[in-house]
Amino acid sequence: MNIAVRYYSQFGRTRAIAEEMADELGVVAKSVVDEPTLKEHVDVLFLGGAPYLSIMDAALEEYVNGLTSQMVGCVVLFTTSNWSHRTAIGMRVKLEERGIRVAPGHFYAHMAAIGQSKPAARAYAREALEKATKIAEAAEHELKDDKGSRMKELAVEVASVAAVAVVVVAGVAVARRLLKLRS
Ligand SMILES: Cc1cc2nc3c(=O)[nH]c(=O)nc-3n(C[C@H](O)[C@H](O)[C@H](O)COP(=O)(O)O)c2cc1C
Q1: pLDDT score of 8 more than 90
Q2: Helix (H) / strand (E) containing 91
Q3: Which among 105, 102, 115 is positioned nearest to 44, based on CA atoms?
Q4: Mean pLDDT, residues 129-154 taken together
Q5: Residue 10: which of 74, 87, 77 has the closest Cα?
Q6: Who is most buried in 64, 78, 119, 175, counting CB within 10 A?
Q7: Pairwise CA distance, residues 119 & 130, whole Å
């Protein structure tokens, strides 16, 4: 199980939540500015950000747009702000529209209550990991089933082509024989 925690944070609040979650999960939280792409496949990716004048920062948007369903099994979202949840909602829309699985809901901490939100962030990380793992595993099985049925289809196609080839070759051999017998 490969878990990663990534965040964008200008003033350190989202980073504090990310670090709390990462500590609970036994990994190191990294900023999307310091590491702008995932280096390997991640089963569950915790991804956080905040709104600045109602929009997510361009670095976070770029990071979200660079993710693919091959790179990530399931994403868990978190956000901090004064009132708005739109960064989490915006990330969900961008991820889901490209077929990336996102765990239901997101963790929210008010900007003035980061310290008090830390125990809740830890509890959320544990619970969300369990849910997201199930989603990621189901996605993995779907992918395997899909590959399996495509392999079966391919095998049937190859067998059909081979059968036709055998019939053609046999037909040609019989025709040659007949022609020889006549002459
Ligand atoms: C320039 C600026 C614009 C902000 N705009 C919003 C906003 O539109 N909606 C909101 O709920 N919070 C807004 N906030 C509050 C931040 O989202 C909040 O402080 C957040 O926790 C910052 O996260 P960070 O410390 O990880 O950078 C704004 C803060 C700043 C400094």
Answers
A1: yes
A2: helix 86-96
A3: 102
A4: 83
A5: 87
A6: 78
A7: 17
Ligand 1 pocket mutation, candidates 82, 86, 107, 117, criterion most atoms within 8 A of CB: 82
Provide the β-strand partners of residue 108: 79
Å from CA of 56 to ligand 1 middle: 9
* Rounded-to-integer distance, Cα 89 and Cα 137, Å: 24
44-70 per-position pLDDT tens digit:
999 999 999 999 999 999 999 999 999
Give the number of the atom of ligand 1 that is nearest the alpha carbon of residue 80.
21
Residues flanking ligand 1, CB < 6 Å? 9-15, 50-54, 80-84, 111
Nearest ligand 1 atom, CA 54: 8
- Structural domains in the chain, CATH included, are 3-142 (3.40.50.360)
Q: How many CB atoms lie within 10 A of CB 129?
A: 22
Ligand 1 center from residue 2 Cα (angstroms)? 30
Dist CA 141 CA 109 (whole Å): 34
Rounded to an integer, the average pLDDT of 16-28 is 98
Per-residue pLDDT tens over the stretch 86-126? 999 999 999 999 999 999 999 999 999 999 999 999 999 99
